[in-house]
Structures are given as structure tokens and as C-alpha cells.
């Protein structure tokens, strides 16, 4: 019996969704192909009909993670960077390991260890984030300041074991983005 036309596309999407979630939670080294495939409820053999390597999967998963994270963005924040920063730099976003986190913040230290394909995917994802932010912030400099405060603030707040300091960083970065987006 032949597979339905969309079967391969659906399988690839399941793998990418699984990889996006697992990689943003654990990074490249901590997640195996077997982990991704088990989470996607597919066999390891299916992996090789979609990806050349784990690195290829990782690069494509960065884009998928950004897409998934973007879908979680509150509708009210689409045209207002200060509102988006309020969501992005929230305790909920920092602490929710079950949902799709932002690959820009959650993988920032992992990316420097990766190959050119992965770094290109990360750079393209960052460029799309900057382009979205430019729609609601006056200058390029303020846009870059806001984007870096958001990504860096979230990444650092996740790394800390001092909840009070972590919360202070989130609040300070929210205020910084608010100041840039007036």
C-alpha cells in the first residue's frame, strides 16, 4: 500500500517539532537522534530520508523552533515591542520547559560550538527577529539594543540559580526595551 502524498511531509514536520523542543531544552550534545525520533514516535530509519546529519537536523530545527515560538507570541504584542518584551522576558517564558522556547536565547551558547550551516540558520533566525522588531522601533540602533536585551536577558536569567536576581534581570531588560521602543 502506497503512502499518502503528505506522509513524508508530515513525518518531517513531526521530527522537526520534536527536535526543536528537545534541542532548545538540552542543546546539541545532550540530544541524540534516537531521542528526537523516539519523541516524534518514529523509527530511526525515518530520520535518514529527511536529513543528511544531526547537524542538518539541528539547523532546520532552529528555524522550526523560532516558528513554534513565534506562534506562542500574544496577538496583542504583534505591533508593540514593549508588549512583546513583557511576554518574552517573563518568568513563564523563562521557566516553561514543556513549551517551545526561543532558540535565540535558549541556544545562544550552544551555537558557537556548531558548524557553519547551524550558525547560518541561527543568524537568519536572528535577522528575522530584528526585522520584526524594526517594525515597531524607530532606529536600527534601538532595535538592536532591544533585541540583544531580550535575548541576552532571557538567556542569562535562565542560567542563574538565584531566582531573585533572575527576576531582577527580566524586569530590568523589560524596562530597557520599553525605553527603546517609546
TrEMBL record:
Top-level taxon of origin: Bacteria
Signal peptide: none
SUPFAM superfamilies cross-referenced by the UniProt entry: Homeodomain-like (SSF46689), Tetracyclin repressor-like, C-terminal domain (SSF48498)
Annotated keywords: DNA-binding, Transcription, Transcription regulation
HTH tetR-type domain: residues covered: 9-69
DNA-binding region, residues: 32-51
InterPro entries: DNA-bd_HTH_TetR-type_CS, Homeodomain-like_sf, HTH_TetR, Tet_transcr_reg_TetR-rel_C_sf
Name listed for the protein in its UniProt record: TetR/AcrR family transcriptional regulator
Amino acid at each position: 500500500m502506497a503512502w499518502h502524498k503528505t506522509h513524508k511531509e508530515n513525518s518531517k514536520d513531526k521530527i522537526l517539532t520534536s527536535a526543536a523542543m528537545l534541542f532548545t531544552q538540552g542543546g546539541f550534545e545532550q540530544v541524540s537522534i534516537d531521542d528526537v525520533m523516539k519523541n516524534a514516535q518514529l523509527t530511526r530509519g525515518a530520520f535518514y530520508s529527511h536529513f543528511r546529519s544531526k547537524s542538518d537536523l539541528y539547523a532546520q530545527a532552529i528555524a522550526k523552533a523560532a516558528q513554534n515560538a513565534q506562534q506562542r507570541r500574544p496577538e496583542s504584542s504583534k505591533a508593540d515591542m514593549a508588549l512583546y518584551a513583557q511576554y518574552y522576558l517573563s518568568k513563564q517564558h523563562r521557566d516553561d520547559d514543556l513549551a517551545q522556547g526561543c532558540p535565540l536565547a535558549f541556544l545562544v551558547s550552544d551555537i558557537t560550538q556548531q558548524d557553519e550551516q547551524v550558525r547560518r540558520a541561527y543568524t537568519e533566525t536572528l535577522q528575522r527577529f530584528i526585522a520584526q522588531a524594526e517594525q515597531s522601533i524607530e532606529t536600527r540602533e534601538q532595535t538592536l539594543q532591544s533585541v540583544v536585551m531580550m535575548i541576552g536577558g532571557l538567556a542569562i536569567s535562565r542560567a542563574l540559580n538565584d531566582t531573585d536576581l533572575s527576576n531582577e534581570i527580566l524586569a530590568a531588560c523589560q524596562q530597557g526595551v520599553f525605553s527603546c521602543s517609546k
